[in-house]
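For this section, I looked closely at the sequence of one protein beside the tokens encoding its backbone, which the following lines show:
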Amino acid sequence: MKLKMHKCPECGIYSLEEVCPKCGGELKVIYPPKFSIEDKYGKYRRQLKKESMNK
């Protein structure tokens, strides 16, 4: 069983649940993704960043 801290973007409450206990909204995981040398999607992230900087 993995316990990950979640945060409600609407009311700012932290919880271990999947749904906010205060407003009933969806909670988001607050941890960044793990770093991997074999990044499958790095090419696409860099391309998106490059395109957004040119606009």
Observations:
- Helices lie at 42-54.
- The chain has a mean pLDDT of 85.
- The chain has one helix and three strands.
- The two ends are 44 Å apart (CA to CA).
